[in-house]
Amino acid sequence: MTTHSNNHYYVPHGALYPVTISAGLLALASGFIFSVATDTNKDLAYLQTPGKWMMYIGAAIIILMTFKWLSAVVVESITGQYKQWEDKSFRIGMIAFICSELAFFAAFFGALFYMRIISVPDLAAFDPLFTPYKDFLGTWPSAGPGGVVLGTEYVPGKLTPMGAWGLPAINTALLLTSGATITWAHWGLLKDNRKQLILGLFLTVALGTAFLICQAFEYYEAYTHMGLTMGSGAYGATFFMLTGFHGFHVTLGTIMLIVILLRSMKGHFSAKNHFGFEGVAWYWHFVDVVWLGLFIFVYWL
Amino acid sequence: MSTTTVAHHDEHTDHPTGIMRWLTTTNHKDIGTMYLTFSLIMFLVGGSMILGIRAELFQPGLQLMNPDFFNQLIGVHALIMIFAALMPAATGFANWMIPLQIGAPDMALPRLNNWGFWLLPPSAILLTLPFALALFGIGDGALATGWTFYPPLSIQGGIGVDFAIFAVHLLGISSVLGSINIIVTLFNMRAPGMTFMKMPMFAWGWLITAFLLIATIPVLAGAVTMLLTDRHFGTHFFDAAGGGDPIMFQHLFWFFGHPEVYILLLPVWGFIPQILQTFSRKPMYGYKAQVYSFWAIGALSVVVWAHHFFTAGLPVPALLYFMYSTMAISLPLAVLFFCWIKTMWRGSMSFETPMLFTVGWIILFGIGGLTGLVLADVAADAQYHNSYFVVAHFHYTLFAGGIMGIMAGVYYWLPKMTGHMYNEKLGQLHFWLTAISFNLTFIPQFFLGLAGMPRRIPDYALQFAEFNMISSIAAFVLGLSQLIFVYNIISTVRGGKKATDQVWEGAEGLEWTLSSPPPYHSFSEQPTVK
Questions:
Q1: Contact criterion met (CB < 8 Å) for B121 and A234
Q2: Residue B246, helix vs strand vs coil
Q3: I need a labelling partner for A35 at 20 to 30 A (CA). Which of A143, B189, B336, B348 fits?
Q4: B contacts of A34 (beta carbons < 8 Å)
Q5: Is the pLDDT of residue A5 over 60?
Q6: B219–A107: do the CB atoms touch at under 8 Å?
Q7: How many other C-beta atoms lie within 10 A of the C-beta of residue B37?
């Protein structure tokens, strides 16, 4: 067992942030359900507006309370409550959290591989005498054979797949560069070179934002010109689910980077004590790695 | 003797009182108490739901409820028992006991710990709210798909499915937070000198559990998210017409669902040997063998999922692979069984309630394991699949192997937590009533399943009537005898004979060096383990 330089562990005082966030999540979830209840039951259309308001209120509570919770942690950090021992806890916790995030993405990659390798070819391989999908070719990208689903006819759209070497390649370059700039910023922090730290973080935020703008443009193109939507069968579903959740994580990462940038400008972090910075940097690298998987398996191959 | 190893720090003892204490607490004992209380309440809620089911099944024909409501009760019963009764009970013990057992001042991330608990009540509300909404004419009740959410039924279902999806999301966040906390605590908070291979068995059980949760709960979250987008955003993950496949959901679900079984059982396997060594008054047998078996079971549990849907139409090589890998789990499990039995061998045993529950647990869980081996056989499973045989099997693993294990833990640690001895006579009465009525409830279901009675059906053919009647009567005895348990716990919390620090003559470990009940903040200075 490691010997602790200070064998007193800081147990933070109680707070209402967690329970309030949970209440916010309850409002967000039930509000969402009410707002889409009309999908399954036309009589519930009157729930739509109250449901939306519940969602907004829930989201506002969550955002506000997350901000206050993390602010409290920042105050505890700069007043020196967190020493080496607590710092190690945060590190192990962050690693475990990132592992759970990887498992989350693994579910969607699993769905992509399953559809591409098993379900789409299987649908094309039936005996023509016994299948409604006679002319279906099991090639990828596929929007599925079409047919009647739960009482409604599904006609697969004529989609153009997203090529790898246009915007996606630029996006890959953007994210890889941002991984380098945040490491450069970290070197600055370690050398106590504030200028390098702040410039590096600023570049990383800029690159992340540029990535998100490209992504938004790509989605716009897909929906307006390429016939590629969430409803475009196997390809559309996996494409938007994977890139969408990744984009959501980039958005969160960028917000976290902006916070870290502002904190750096205020003079927070020292060469020895900067878990806040490193946690975000690790998260950013994780987002980067997931993107490489996306680029290879969703866009390229 | 309460001060021999503990130096008291009074800095945080000025915690708020009343409701604010429980809403804001960062204390691992408070949070553990909340988890355990929540679990007990939900155990009663889930139990009363299934008594409704057993009442309907008392006779053939439809008497009490329409089939849709019957299905809703079954699905919500399972979700509540698994996610809101068993898992929180194990997490409650982890919160209470892991810091005491490893000599830590608290859990490593106390505020996150608080959030982990406070995600549970909202998810319980989400699970049960659809019933209440249906009374007001909103929607048609809770999810009627069973707890497994299989599409296409879950895509056609009403708002109850959406509520269950989000309940699973919140429960998943809670479990992942709890796991992160336990992993960090075990890696970073052990007392100086306590190496991993000196950790108490309960801590080992929970460490593997936490790894499994981190690896599989997010996959379930992903799967139900795909269900949600299929329902509301026009994706075709589980529609053949779009190139998807309903079977894919089964793969994703059971990739989580099978490790989930071990998530529920590993914490119990952790403290069962501790109870055995206490009441056999000799050290546990094969500590290392048990730890390695935990690892082996944890690793195997994530590669055997398809045995839950052998009949769905998988290619033969896949069937064979999943059959052999499933059967392979019985090897490390057999090692555990031998270690448990060998721990008792030639011990000077006494049979207080925790030990009664533990010995009963070994036998009944053994039946659960052996019937699982039968179900793992692809050819035999073609007959047993989706029958009452499966229901009986998994109640032997999850009620006997899970809940009865948890009860052993409750009787074992309750004196330590409350400082009072429970009523031994009532405890023993509770054990015998539970064990006998449990067997009378589920042994008939093995026969029903072998004779071909399918699960999740509110009506049945006449030839199944007698066995169902026995099963229903026994189920009510089983349910009602849990009230003894509740009464015993409440009266122990309120008073009773003072418990000593060691509580049990043969108890060993750091938690027994503290006073009963332990001080609000224990081990502010860590003890050294030699």
A1: no
A2: helix
A3: A143
A4: 159
A5: no
A6: yes
A7: 15
**Residues in A touching B520 (Cβ below 8 Å):** none
Percent of chain A with pLDDT over 70: 97
- Please tell me the class of the B33-513 domain: mainly alpha
The residues, ordered by sequence, that sit 6+ positions from B107 with a Cβ below 8 Å of its Cβ are B28, B31, B95, B98, B99, B113, B181, B182, B185, B189
CA angle (A31 as vertex; A25, A37 as ends), nearest 5: 135
Domain positions in chain A: 13-78, 82-300
Which residues of chain A make contact with B25, given a CB cutoff of 8 A? 14
Cis peptide before B105 (omega within 30 of 0): no
B122 and A23 within 8 Å at the Cβ level: the answer is: yes
Closest residue, chain B, to A149 (C-alpha): B241
* CA–CA separation, A229 and A108 (whole Å): 17
Structure tokens of A156? 């697969």
Which residue bears the tokens 């810091």? B99
Instruction: Tell me the count of A-B CB pairs closer than 8 A.
Output: 265
Q: Which residue has the tokens 């980067």?
A: A288
Q: What is the 3-state secondary structure (H, E, C) of A188-242?
A: HHHCCCHHHHHHHHHHHHHHHHHHHHHHHHHHHHHHHCCCCCCCCHHHHHHHHHH
Q: Is B222 left (phi over 0), alpha (psi -120 to 50) or beta?
A: alpha
Q: Which of A108, A104, A277 is CA-nearest to residue A194?
A: A277
Closest Cα in chain B to A154: B241
CATH topology of domain A82-300: Four Helix Bundle (Hemerythrin (Met), subunit A) (1.20.120)
Across the interface, of A101, A120, A150, the residue whose CB is closest to B243 is A120
Compute the nearest-CA separation of B244 from chain A (Å).
6
Measure the CA–CA gap between B389 and B372, rounded to whole angstroms: 10
pLDDT at B3 over 90: no
Distance of alpha carbon B222 from alpha carbon A105, whole angstroms:
8
Average pLDDT over residues B382-397: 95
Indicate the helix (H) or strand (E) that contains A147: strand A147-149
Q: How far is CA A156 from the centre of its chain?
A: 28
* Cα–Cα separations (whole angstroms), residue A272 to A186, A192, A269: 12, 10, 8
Nearest to A29 among B16, B126, B526 (CB): B126
Q: What is the DSSP string of B63-98?
A: -SS-HHHHHHHHHHHHHIIIIIIIHHHHHHHHHHHH
Q: Which residues of B touch A13 (CB under 8 A)?
A: 12, 26
Which residues in chain A have their CB less than 8 angstroms from residue B111's CB?
Answer: 12, 15, 17-18, 69
CA pair distance A221, A219, nearest whole angstrom: 5
B498 strand-pairing partners:
B420
ipTM: 0.94
Find the length of chain B. Answer: 530
**Facing residue for B241 by CB, picked from A3, A16, A154:** A154
Residue A41: its pLDDT value, please? 85
Q: For residue B33, how many C-alpha atoms fall within 13 Å in the half-sphere facing its CB?
A: 17
The Cα–Cα gap between A36 and B279 comes to: 56
What local confidence, expressed as pLDDT, does residue A160 receive? 84
Reply yes or no on domain A13-78 having CATH 1.10.287.
Answer: yes
Q: Which of A39, A104, A230 sits opposite B221 (nearest CB)?
A: A104
pLDDT digits (tens, 9 = 90+) for B441-484: 999 999 999 999 999 999 999 999 999 999 999 999 999 999 99
User: Residue B12 corresponds to which amino acid?
Assistant: H
Distance from CA of A253 to the nearest CA of B (A): 19
Tokens of B458: 């509110």
